[in-house]
Amino acid sequence: MTSAYPEIYQAWKNDPQTFWGKASALIDWYKPATKIFDPEQGPYGRWFAGAECNTCYNMLDRHIEAGRSDVPAILYDSPVSGQKARFTYSETLEQVMRLSAVMQDFDIQKGDRVLIYMPMVPQALFAMMACARLGAIHSVVFGGFSADELAARIDDATPALIIASSCGLEANKTVSYKPLLDKAIASAKHQIKHCLIHQREQCRCELITGRDHDFTELCEQAAGREVPCTSVAATDPLYILYTSGTTGKPKGVVRDNGGYMVALAWSMGALYDIHAGDIFWTASDIGWVVGHSYIVYAPLLIGATTVLFEGKPVGTPDAGTFWRVVAEHKVKVLFTAPTALRAIKREDPEGKLLHQYDLSSLEALYLAGERADPNTLEWAEQMLNRPVIDHWWQTETGWPIAGNPRGLGILPVKHGSTCVPMPGYDVQVLDDAGHPAKTGELGNIVIKLPMPPGCLPTLWQADQRFHEAYLDEFEGYYKSADAGYMDEDGYIFIMSRTDDIINVAGHRLSTGSMEEVIAGHPQVAECAVIGIADKLKGQIPCGFIVLKAGVTQAHSEIEAECVERVRDQIGPVAALRTVLTVNKLPKTRSGKILRSTMQKIADHEPWKMPATIEDPQTLDDIRDCLHQRGIGTCSEATKPAA
Ligand code: COA
Ligand code: AMP
Predict the structure, then answer these.
(1) Residue nearest to atom 22 of ligand 1 (CA)
(2) Which side of the chain, N or C, has fewer Cβ within a 10 Å radius?
(3) Torsion of CA 121, 124, 126, 127, to 10 degrees
(4) The model scores a pTM over 0.90
């Protein structure tokens, strides 16, 4: 079959407004847009200006009104708790209305922020949808973050209510959320008056009288209460999702209602080939954008069934768990991060567990979140004998920038490439001076403004920061901060970041924020953190410290304290395990730390002594230090000179 993609992409390019105007028919509106795109609003314009809608209505009520009440909306499968549950569209609406009623009793109104700190449980989805129903703006915080990160989000979003679970369940331990929540609330400047606590049997927590309220009890009391959907402007925020920036202060990515719904609904058919009634499983976490868009919003917007999986690719109980879920729930499309596949491959390289299951329902596997290494991708293709599709996007965009639009007719797969840009995205590659790079030449990947519907219109109460972070460097373009190239067929290859972001097990983290934390150690004079290659997690952070003069404390003790500080102040998910003491950091004569050369040394890549280096000995020291710890230094390029 030839793909309709070239024609559709061209149709968008010729007339973006007509394209998105037509796509907007996938959504029910209370009031249509007065302008499909209004270039006068916001930092670069706004989509569906003048329109009114409600996202929860589009996810639940309209499917029920269309007679699909008994279709499953959520299939909860939790090997870590041993629980499974199934919620039809009408059962989901009942739960969402109860919670909306409870939130109304706490006086939550349109535009109020609600912070959600919950693991992969159905109640978290109900909370997100209840916010959408009331026009409140949710901000979900990933469970693997520390109390400090939670406090930073509380202070930035200034929520009127927090909805939290008592604990999360990891493969081999229970993580109590409540002590982290209490610590965050105590240290935040913004005062929290009310918390709704969802008590899990695995670890119930103490409730603070007056502030904490029992989620389940209040929802049960609200049974049967009807809460209508609040009409909001298409351009009103649906949520804020914090992501790593280049400083310790996370960026509050804002998502609107109307444009997001249109883009997600369009992507489900065209990119994933998923339609009403299909079973779609995104194995990620609701704390990340992938979870927001493709566990929660997109599947329900189009009337499909979403699988909510609370577990890990390995260890819950084994590397066959993903395939068990696919077989049991008849999943049509699975979407996960390459790290998850690497973990499965490591434990079940020959697919012995995989072959135990009937995977006949599965049509394709999608990967995103980090670079998909061709080895892993080929392994998955061989094991599954189905298309394995790498696609590229960011928290900022909310939906894929580039991918293989299977719903329009699959294009040839090229390993190492995230395929072609989706309609809405005019992707270009520029050199550092802003000139177009040649075909095949590495450069800065940018998107010509305006960004399509669904992408961030700005950062939460930080238009200036939005401009500085994304728009100022290449005028007229959004800077993705990814480096890569395009080939002669227009296929995109994403190679690395141009900033300090690293990708650890598909989790986006800033080495700059880790440096801020380590620099706070009283004995540390200066430090650098780089991302180094890791077979399982893609990248892991590695820290280098220079101690203050006269420090007598054992170096190993200080290094361990730095590791602990990052775990405590950022969270276990940062996965910083190695900190090494050196005499001096390698710097240019103007004082810039040579992080990328350090990274090349650690990753066994060829490197050259930079002409501007202040003291060549410092790089030799880094090399020796890594060598002594068995990190890097195995290749010719990095072998210490004889
Ligand atoms: N709540 C609390 N703690 C969490 C957490 C959460 N939601 N998620 C991770 N953590 C903790 C882990 O328990 C671990 O703690 P530890 O240092 O005490 O052991 C730490 O954070 C690092 O976790 P993780 O990166 O998950 O590493 P792991 O070694 O436990 O597991 C994998 C390795 C490959 C199985 C796991 O990283 C994985 O499933 N990756 C896929 C990620 C993914 O789907 N990303 C989606 C982005 S699209
Ligand atoms: P996040 O905002 O957490 O979704 O992370 C976005 C970043 O992850 C991107 O800017 C890329 O650096 C990286 N990324 C996401 N998907 C891919 C992919 N398919 N290939 C390479 N890198 C990716």
Answers:
(1) 573
(2) C
(3) 160
(4) yes
SS3 515: helix
Q: What is the pLDDT of residues 185-230, one digit of tens each?
A: 999 999 999 999 999 999 999 999 999 999 999 999 999 999 999 9
Q: Which of 308, 293, 371, 379 lies closest to 341 in space, CA to CA?
A: 379
Q: Is 395 in the pocket of ligand 2 (CB under 6 A)?
A: yes
- Number of neighbours of residue 275 by Cβ within 10 angstroms: 14
Residues of the chain with CATH 3.30.300.30: 505-638
What is residue 632's predicted lDDT score, i.e. its pLDDT? 61
Q: Which atom of ligand 2 is nearest to the CA of 390?
A: 19
CA atoms 400, 401, 406, 408: torsion sign: positive
Q: For the CA atoms of the chain, what is the radius of gyration? A: 24
- Please list the residue range(s) of the chain that carry CATH number 3.40.50.12780: 5-311+391-484
Structure tokens at 529: 């953190």
pLDDT tens digits, residue range 163-186?
A: 999 999 998 899 999 999 999 999
Nearest residue to 494 via CA among 485, 503, 502: 485
Asked whether residue 137 carries a pLDDT value surpassing 90, the answer given is yes
Q: How far is CA 386 from CA 329, 365, 378, 418, in A?
A: 18, 7, 11, 17
pLDDT, position 642 = 26
Closest-lying ligand 1 atom to the alpha carbon of residue 504: 25
Pocket mutation for ligand 1, best pick of 121, 376, 390, 573 (most atoms within 8 Å of C-beta): 573
Predicted confidence at residue 248, as pLDDT, reads 67
Instruction: Look at the domain 5-311+391-484 and name its fold.
Output: Rossmann fold (3.40.50)
Give the residue among 556, 555, 577 at the shortest CA–CA distance from 566: 577
The pLDDT tens digits of the residues spanning 533-573 come to 999 999 999 999 999 999 999 999 999 999 999 999 999 99
Pairing of strands 161-165, 137-140: unpaired
Ligand 1 geometric centre to CA of 227 (Å): 37
Helices (H), 161-274: 178-187, 215-221, 258-270
Burial 606-641 (b: 16+ CB within 10 A, else e): ebeebeebbeeebbebbbebbbeeebbbeeeebeee
For the domain covering 505-638, report its CATH number: 3.30.300.30
| Smallest CA separation from ligand 2 atom 20, residue | 371
Residues 297-328: tens digit of each pLDDT: 999 999 999 999 999 999 999 999 999 999 99
pLDDT range class, residue 247, cuts 50, 70, 90: low
Choosing from 120, 170, 348, 567 the residue with most ligand 1 atoms within 8 A of its CB, the one to mutate for a pocket test is: 170
- For residue 585, the CA-to-ligand 2 centroid distance in Å is 29
